Amino acid sequence: MECLHVIRPSFLIFFSGLFLAVAVSANIGDFSDHWQKRAEAAQAKVIESYNPDPNGAISDFNKAVNIALEKNSTRRDLLAGKRRGGGLCVATNPIDRCWRCRSDWVRNRRRLAFCAKGFGRNAMGGVRGRYYVITDPSDSDLVNPKPGTIRHAVIQDAPLWIVFARDMIIRLTEELIVNSHKTIDGRGANIHITGGAQITVQYVQHVIIHNLHIHHINPGNGGMIRDSPTHYGIRTRSDGDGISLYGASNIWIDHISLSNCADGLIDAIMGSTAITISNCHLTNHDDVMLFGASDAYSGDALMQITVAFNHYGRGLVQRMPRVRWGFVHVVNNDYTHWLMYAVGGSQHPTVISQGNRYIAPPNIYAKEVTKRDYAPDSVWKQWTWRSEGDLMMNGAFFVESGEPLVGSFSRHEMIKAKPGSFVTRLTRYAGALNCRIGFPC
């Protein structure tokens, strides 16, 4: 049997035209030559980043989790360092194990860029650039941003590793448009993006967003906004997502605490791919994650996203995530709260759920983890939605469909995910960390 969800070359040619045809609706008031070139470059990167063997990527991810937990089985391996206050630092999943228990992390910040797993594992961010220190939390000039502000940092063309001089509360006057090859690294400071507009990652690649609090985000009004040192232009109204990925590739979002945004907490749409969302803590929100914005946009068939080690906490309602068209590996997450459903979708996405813990709400009508939209039973039963090693609690149940995973791994020996009983350990440190210089995080 051929691998699940393999995109054929003929579709890639079709996608090239489709991608540019819809670009004019991308909250860009004037789709100038600048945006045309950026969209074309992004389209090429999306196609380049697409993994023709997603099953192999799943197997590699699960192998890394198994190795990390085996190494954590001895006391000596747990003691990578002492945390501030004398407590022991315990790295409980393979991403954190790569860096979090090192007391010298501040001198080796760029090590983080080599720690991602899953489909976003190649995201390099600003690893090849210099450090840029944010010293000013203001955001008063959208066309000529002040040096030392986050807006001035993220629009630069050169790769940058962006850090913060101190604790900050940043209110974005309008959406923050992030250029390629940027790492926003909040370690060592308590950084809140709140009370203003969203972070937009549009038609770019290689972005890492790490260790921030993002909450109470509102729609922006648009206007003249700079997106690079050489270009600014008219933007239309932004949605009010926490983080919006649009035609982006090689993206890693890690250790973010998100809540209370006007639209989604994290949206990935319009051909975005090669994405990992990990170690995040999500609370107090309705439409949590949207992967694929339209049933009509088949370009999202290239979308491949890993959702791992996240804690879906109090006050969440639905879309954790909701998927159209693409391929999503939902692995070792802790779903402790939802009001309607956890994982939903339409337009035949592939959803592989492995080793998650699903705790259903008290409502007897909301026990089902899954929700499929706009398709009769005869259609959605052909979609590949599989549950393996998930821990179902309080009456939770996952309605499977499509072919079983066994037999789909013709070129790779399937490595099983750690079962849902391990999730509390794997997600123990989800959300923004309190990292202090000289101590493990």
From TrEMBL:
Broad EC category: lyase
Record's keyword terms, sorted: Calcium, Glycoprotein, Lyase, Metal-binding, Signal
Domain Pectate lyase: 167-364
Keyword set includes Ribonucleoprotein: no
Annotated Pfam families: Pec_lyase_N, Pectate_lyase_4
Obligatory cofactor(s): Ca(2+)
Note accompanying the cofactor annotation: Binds 1 Ca(2+) ion. Required for its activity.
Gene3D superfamilies recorded: Single-stranded right-handed beta-helix, Pectin lyase-like (2.160.20.10)
Catalytic activity: Eliminative cleavage of (1->4)-alpha-D-galacturonan to give oligosaccharides with 4-deoxy-alpha-D-galact-4-enuronosyl groups at their non-reducing ends
Domain of life: Eukaryota
Biological pathway: Glycan metabolism; pectin degradation; 2-dehydro-3-deoxy-D-gluconate from pectin: step 2/5
SUPFAM superfamilies cross-referenced by the UniProt entry: Pectin lyase-like (SSF51126)
Signal sequence interval, chain numbering: 1-26
EC number(s) stated in the UniProt entry for this protein: 4.2.2.2
One term of GO molecular function: pectate lyase activity
Membrane-spanning ranges: none
Keyword Metal-binding: yes
InterPro entries with a match to the protein in the record: AmbAllergen, Pec_lyase, Pec_lyase_N, Pectin_lyas_fold, Pectin_lyase_fold/virulence, PEL
Similarity field: Belongs to the polysaccharide lyase 1 family.
Protein name: Pectate lyase
Protein's organism: Platanthera zijinensis
